[in-house]
Amino acid sequence: MLSARSLFREILDHDESFRLFCSVAAGGEAQGGWENGRIAALVPTAQRALAPKIARHGADEDKHGRIFTALLRRRGFTPLPVPPETDYTVLLERRGIGLAHARLRQDTPLTERDIVVYLAHSRVTEQRAAEQMALLLKHFAGHPEIGRAVRMIAHDEDNHLAYTHEELLRLAAAGHGRFIQRTLRACALAEIRVHRDVSLAVMARMGRLLGWSRIRSALLTAGIHAVYGYERLAGWRRMVTLGTPARRDPLGGPAAPAPEFA
Ligand SMILES: [Fe+2]
Ligand SMILES: [Fe+2]
To answer: What is the DSSP string of 86-154?
Structure first.
């Protein structure tokens, strides 16, 4: 069987693949938390109303990182270092997408255009995060070990995505429309490649850990390339549209605590 459900179940049921899955996820979330924390600290004066929302976005991602680390600890593991070829955030940065880490380490305030770049990058990557969590939610919302974590993170990622729509629409109305569209397009086209490459790298490692047959690995590889083909042809467009979200001001207020995890 090659369904998403059976694939995830196999990864969750084996210690080493579970460890890799949670380590890669925790690393990505913690990186997102750091980036958002820095951006919140460097928001330009004209956009200062955004600072608490960016800080909340960062706090949520940090919390997700702690949740994945807590899931690992419960099985008696510590996180593995994230293999470089599976490092989604670093690979995106290397393609010039989002704000460079070297820039975020400086102490000079960002510009309004930098804020657009941050929000466009988030619009695209949060769509990916929300879709991946929705898939986990569909199959594992009631799972005894990860169900609660999946429900909480899926809810947060939906909020993050709604927030980026809301803020980009506001900046589009303020005259940044063309720059937003250009930036979103570049982000989406880079993201679908990075997502393909990371998926191939993760699956290659999972295949080795789980002893997959050559046929099984080849089918999964073909599936990842097929998804990329679809996204390159048409699917990327879903990542660049903007619409008024059903949830308004989704990041107003502090992050919901997760005392059982962190
Ligand atoms: Fe997250
Ligand atoms: Fe997120």
So the answer is: G-HHHHHHHTT-S--HHHHHS-SPPPHHHHHHHHHHHHHHHHHHHHHHHHHHHHHTT-TTTHHHHHHHH
